[in-house]
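ok so for the tutorial part 2 we go from a plain amino acid sequence to predicted structure tokens. step 1 is just haveing the sequence, like this:
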Amino acid sequence: MSELLAHTGTIAAIATAVVPQQGSVGIVRVSGDHAMAIAKSLFHAPGKQVWESHRILYGFIRQPQTQQVVDEALLLIMQAPRSFTREDVVEFHCHGGIIAVQQVLQLCLEHGARLAQPGEFTLRAFLNGRLDLTQAESIADLVGAKSPQAAQTALAGLRGKLAQPIKNLRSQCLDILAEIEARIDFEEDLPPLDQQRIIDEIAQVSLEINQLLATKDKGELLRTGLKVAIVGRPNVGKSSLLNAWSQSDRAIVTDLPGTTRDVVESQLVVGGIPVQVLDTAGIRDTVDQVEKIGVERSRQAANNADLVLFTIDGSVGLTNADQEIFEQVKHRPLILVVNKVDLLENQVLWRERTAETQSTQREGREEIIKQVVKTAAAKNQGIDDLEMAILESVEAGNVEVADLDLAINQRQAAALMKAKNDLVQVQETIINQLPLDFWTIDLRGAIYALGEITGEEVTESVLDRIFSRFCIGK
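step 2 — the prediction. this is what the tokens look like for a chain of 474 residues:
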């Protein structure tokens, strides 16, 4: 049996981040049959405070044998079934930091609880019918959200916005299956089956599955973010661009080429999408061993990035060194950033200078470079245009970037693809005039796949894989 499913009894864990000298409150959560008994043995509530569900008591946590006070705290009581796990739950709200919460947790473990496994509180909520599997996964997405948009999408999933359409699709498939099986068992007592209607109903279910599958790429962007590398030769203004974009002095800026020796990171949010921006060392041939390492890391960052901002000095135009770098990054999705346009004499555009000096290569570049953004990073100009170009680049990959109510993850997408393929097989079985028994085989497969998404049909290995990624106190 699954290690998670085999665990029973009362569990305890620290439910808040433990950071030295940080945070005013630390919470120890206890769930299970003995939660109230543990609370009463450890917590002293002075006066006539009432021990009943959904009350907060004030008092002291004490070592039962010595009566030594461990912490001054609050106790939150939530008795079954009106709790997150639908079990008796108590929470000790202690002072933050490291020592107090760890001492309280140790007392709970010494008096009848065991340490919770990763995600075990949420697993119990699922097993006890408090949540379906999509809602449980949305909790993990909410905790790990890197942008307001990601948090809103996770909240939509937590409220059942993904589960409901999946359940509706599964219900439609069950209705179709019931109608087919009725013909198998009572063929002589029922009118002939309308095969075209069955095909049309299956096609409608498949269409709705496709609509859900279309949210996968956006969901991945919201969860993992977009990795963007600023790449170019030394002294074209890459670090100034990062500083202007992040509105901070993340990178050192000087007039000396090769100032940036390593990849500098900054976390931003663009159009609701978390963006990890990498300012790389200027790519050039160098004898400096440290700079060589930085240049190699720049090349690696460009190769691993989702999007490359190929940056040139607009006051100089495209040089042979720029062309060499372009050849190294042209296989990646990229935006050409023409920086230092404020230094252009008589507004001579970089394209005109390029046409004069490298006309034979210009046509090939423009077939690859679809977007050009002009910036003056030192004067904080062009950043809005750059962000708009990034969003347009994302949209060009058929990934919408706004107004997404729900977004499926990889596990859910795999199950939806399985259901879709099974439904295609059902349609082919009908068209090929095979017996009704054959219709039900793949239809049952589609129903099972849809049930895996919400947890109505789920294996222990799937539960292990999902909940092992949670933090221990969740």
